[in-house]
Design a protein that fits this description.
single chain; 556 residues; mainly alpha; 18 helices; 4 strands; globular
Length: 556
């Protein structure tokens, strides 16, 4: 790790730590404040009864109905885009299976893209379809996190908030203002924002090159801030229009981390003990730094087959190894999925780190909302195991953690392995799935594993070697996205309702402290043990075997 890389890392962390308490305090106010006069007018216009809170089941039903309508509307828009305005490149209708996959992808905050944005989507589809769902899917994840935080903060009640109030407040009071300012900054740095048709340029060699443009900046900010990740261009954040310089690259990474990190601070404030939030963030940072260190070390070794020279394949020269690796770990530690380098070209062990980040459930900061409630599910499991060690009923933040909460937590934790290993195994076993694999041997296994890990954990990034735009992969990856999103969200909301109904229990001499180093260490250990026991065999057959083979001079 050179001095330039260390400086990037230190600057990134300093900015994250500076933003966390400020944004955390604001979100705590946003989730707890009574509606003001202007909000009351808005809610009346939208038909929302802001004074009527919902139990967890009603909250969950509202969430599912909202997403169902979102999927249907986006699907129709993509299928009819050739008949609609703002289509200067004359893009045709998106094929039905691809439109279905894309609608599920953006509604679940996954943004898996089996298409090239500039060669498939009209400006209207990019703005009114994809960018709108970037806002709404991110807001839905934050809303579920807010409901769970209320479950911990409240007692002897059956309500966890109002879904429609939460999603409206998050969209209009948090995401939209930040993205408006951020998009203007990006425009100032050279990111396009227009409705123009592609232009044709003549290269130095005399060839013609078609350069797409459009409303790029507005989509870039929400794709990172909302940890969505779907690129306007096929090259995503490696494209010079999406990521023109080092400052924009830093802004992108900070935006990816900002809300997820700040939600830990929001949690601490809402439960009345900021130390609880800092403990969760500490556990996340331990996992993040471990992954970053491993990936940076592995990629810096160079390719042994080529004599150990720096591995620049798949990377932008203007960004280099340090910025590429930091971005790769940031985007997979969250559920963002944006990429500024080709993960398929990383050396095996470096490529394994983004895989592991996703396979752990993307709780290393994680997606906006989903990272916090995912880590809290592991926290419940941690205090349960700690309680068993000393023979006491486990407690967390003054709530007895009993069989119902643990069963729901286990269901949430098992959702991702079901999607990744179940559907991924199907893809490897069937000829129709094998047909999409580009590489032989362990690297081909890693391509499939990465695809379903990305879909099942709502990330959206890809190794890049898998041919995913087929009926089989469009259907199975869409199924993985839905399982990875809703089979976790619904148990989390049920946990929120169960906790809200419990009475507060005063701490006693036997209460396990959940704000100190011991809790952080146990929490990190539980996350690693659960992920390790679940996925170690397939990781050993994929990137680990490929690393050993590469050391022996074999390429795949």
């Amino acid at each position: 790790m050179d001095a330039h890389g260390v400086l990037q890392l230190l600057l990134f962390f300093a900015l994250v730590l500076a933003v966390t308490p400020v944004l955390g305090r604001y979100m705590a106010w946003l989730f707890q404040a009574a509606p003001g006069p202007r909000e009351a007018v808005l809610f009346r216009l939208l038909g929302i009864d802001a004074g009527r809170e919902q139990g967890w089941a009603a909250y969950a039903v509202s969430l599912l109905i909202f997403h169902l309508l979102g999927v249907l509307s986006l699907y129709v828009l993509l299928r009819l885009q050739h008949l609609l305005p703002l289509n200067p490149a004359g893009q045709g209708a998106v094929p039905s299976d691809l439109a279905f996959n894309t609608a599920i992808s953006f509604a679940t905050n996954t943004n898996w893209q089996n298409y090239g944005g500039e060669s498939t989507m009209s400006h209207l589809s990019q703005m009114a379809g994809l960018a709108v769902h970037n806002f709404l899917s991110a807001a839905a994840g934050i809303a579920v996190a807010a409901a769970l935080m209320r479950g911990f903060a409240r007692h002897s009640t059956r309500t966890v908030g109002n879904f429609y109030v939460d999603i409206t407040r998050v969209t209009l009071g948090l995401l939209l203002p930040l993205c408006l300012v951020g998009a203007l900054v990006l425009v100032g740095q050279g990111v396009p924002q227009n409705f123009d048709a592609p232009v044709t340029a003549t290269t130095l060699e005399g060839a013609s090159q078609v350069i797409a443009q459009g409303p790029v900046a507005s989509q870039m900010m929400i794709k990172h801030l909302g940890t969505n990740g779907g690129g306007f261009f096929n090259a995503n954040a490696a494209h010079p229009y999406e990521n023109p310089n080092a400052l924009v690259n830093l802004i992108h990474m900070l935006a990816i981390f900002a809300i997820g990190a700040a939600l830990t601070n929001t949690f601490g404030r809402m439960v009345g003990d900021p130390r609880q939030g800092w403990a969760l963030l500490a556990a996340m940072m331990v996992l993040f730094l471990a992954g970053l260190g491993a990936a940076w070390w592995a990629e810096s070794q160079g390719n042994p087959v080529l004599g150990g020279i720096a591995n620049m394949e798949g990377k932008e020269v203007r960004l280099g190894i340090a910025a590429s690796i930091l971005f790769a770990v940031v985007t997979t530690a969250t559920s963002c999925g944006a990429v500024n380098a080709m993960h398929d070209s990383l050396l095996p062990l470096a490529g394994m780190v983004p895989l592991v980040n996703m396979l752990l459930g993307e709780v290393v900061v994680g997606g906006v909302g989903s990272g916090l409630y995912g880590m809290l599910v592991f926290a419940l499991l941690t205090v349960f195991i700690a309680g068993l060690m000393v023979g006491r009923t486990p407690e967390y933040l003054g709530k007895k953690i009993e069989a119902r909460e643990i069963k729901l937590a286990v269901i949430a934790i098992l959702a991702s392995p079901l999607a990744v290993l179940g559907l991924g195994g199907l893809a490897i076993a069937l000829p129709v799935g094998q047909a999409g694999i580009a590489a032989a041997g362990p690297h081909g296994l890693s391509e499939v594993l990465y695809a379903f890990a990305s879909a099942g954990n709502n990330n959206g990034s890809a190794f890049g070697g898998l041919s995913g735009n087929t009926l089989f992969y469009n259907a199975t990856l869409a199924a993985a996205m839905m399982v990875g999103r809703f089979v976790i969200m619904i148990p989390v909301l049920a946990i929120a309702g169960s906790l809200a109904a419990k009475k507060a229990v005063p701490p006693s001499a036997g209460t396990f402290p959940t704000h100190g180093r011991l809790f952080v260490a146990l929490l990190v250990g539980i996350v690693l043990v659960v992920g390790g026991l679940t996925y170690f065999p397939v990781l050993a057959l994929g990137p680990v075997v490929e690393h050993l083979a590469l050391s022996a001079g074999a390429l795949f």
